[in-house]
């Protein structure tokens, strides 16, 4: 990856890019399958240190909703008289830049935080946001994962339980409707997709849809089998989201360029279903994981989708685990 590319991706504030760029710089872009899996190790520490430096870029959408980019997952903010409502918390190290960006949006305090799932790049900031005055809400499985130690096998990382102030005090089971700041927020559980505790958040009047990590815009996604995620659940969730949004809907992905739309989400669905079919066919022929990776089942998509930390071999492994 060239320096120019790295600069462009860094400006987008997608902190995983720094991990990808570093790895590409070291390896020249070519990794053996073993190296690819080794690359996943240490991801968490690298994301944390990247977020400590990354600027926060503000994208103003509509209906008093904005997106903050640059602190882990994309953070949506709804402003209004009930206080700021955040979708996802980002990384604690971004706190001063997050506060500065949010004070530029409105003067109200932060009152509500909704976690799309338990992963650290969406919940690391829970504790400081709770101390600022935010009530935290998440899907009940996400709360369970935050309450106890978790191991994410594919990151080779053990997470300790979250501190009490970081735990959601409210939970969603299947779905929930909230009325805040004169807006209707529809929260919906998407079972066994990116994890077993993903919720999506639709801002009904503004026609904005935050997908959490079910959708990574323009890049191969991570799927967390260790806490109940699956390729088939991810595809099912994307199909359900596509059926519920329109051509004017602004789609906010968990990662990647934060202002997306239905056509781009359809392209993501097509990528997922084609690669799933290719990998499944190879696995049914009795091919091992290494043989399946060597057959390049993602080849048609790598130039567009494979340029980040979840590269072609790593993504093939994630699909192979689930078919
Ligand atoms: Zn995630």
UniProtKB/TrEMBL annotation:
Pfam families: Lactamase_B (PF00753)
SMART domains referenced in this protein's UniProt entry, alphabetically: Lactamase_B
Matches recorded under SUPFAM superfamilies: Metallo-hydrolase/oxidoreductase (SSF56281)
UniProt keyword list: Plasmid
InterPro entries per record: Metallo-B-lactamas, NDM-1-like, RibonucZ/Hydroxyglut_hydro, TAT_signal
Keyword Membrane tagged: no
Domain called Metallo-beta-lactamase: residue spans: 72-255
Gene3D superfamilies linked: Ribonuclease Z/Hydroxyacylglutathione hydrolase-like
Keyword DNA damage among UniProt keywords: no
Family: Belongs to the metallo-beta-lactamase superfamily. Class-B beta-lactamase family.
PANTHER family listed in its UniProt record: ACYL-COENZYME A THIOESTERASE MBLAC2 (PTHR42951:SF4), METALLO-BETA-LACTAMASE DOMAIN-CONTAINING (PTHR42951)
Protein's UniProt name: MBL fold metallo-hydrolase
């Amino acid at each position: 990856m060239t320096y120019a590319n790295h600069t462009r991706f860094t400006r987008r504030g997608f902190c995983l890019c720094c991990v990808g760029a570093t790895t590409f710089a070291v390896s020249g872009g070519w990794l053996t399958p073993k190296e690819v899996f080794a690359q996943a190790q240490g991801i968490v520490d690298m994301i944390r240190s990247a977020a400590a430096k990354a600027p926060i870029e503000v994208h103003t959408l509509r209906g008093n909703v904005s997106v903050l980019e640059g602190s882990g997952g994309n953070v949506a903010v709804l402003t209004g008289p009930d206080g700021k409502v955040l979708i996802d918390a980002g990384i604690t190290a971004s706190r001063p830049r997050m506060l500065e960006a949010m004070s530029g949006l409105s003067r109200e305090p932060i009152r509500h935080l909704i976690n799309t799932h338990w992963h650290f790049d969406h919940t690391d900031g829970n504790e400081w946001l709770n101390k600022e005055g935010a009530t935290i809400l998440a899907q009940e499985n996400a709360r369970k994962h935050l309450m106890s130690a978790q191991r994410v096998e594919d990151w080779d990382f053990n997470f300790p339980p979250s501190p009490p102030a970081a735990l959601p005090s409210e939970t969603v089971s299947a779905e929930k409707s909230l009325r805040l700041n004169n807006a209707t927020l529809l929260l919906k559980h998407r079972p066994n997709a990116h994890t077993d505790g993903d919720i999506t958040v639709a801002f009904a009047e503004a026609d904005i849809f935050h997908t959490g990590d079910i959708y990574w815009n323009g890049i191969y996604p991570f799927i967390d089998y260790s806490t109940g995620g699956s390729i088939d659940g991810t595809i099912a969730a994307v199909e359900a989201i596509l059926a519920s949004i329109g051509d004017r809907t602004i789609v906010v992905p968990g990662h990647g360029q934060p202002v997306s739309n239905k056509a781009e989400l359809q392209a993501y669905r097509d990528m997922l279903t084609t690669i799933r079919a290719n990998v499944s066919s190879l696995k049914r022929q009795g091919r091992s994981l290494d043989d399946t990776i060597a057959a390049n089942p993602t080849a048609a998509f790598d130039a567009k989708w494979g340029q980040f930390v979840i590269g072609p071999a790593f993504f093939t492994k994630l699909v192979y685990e689930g078919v």
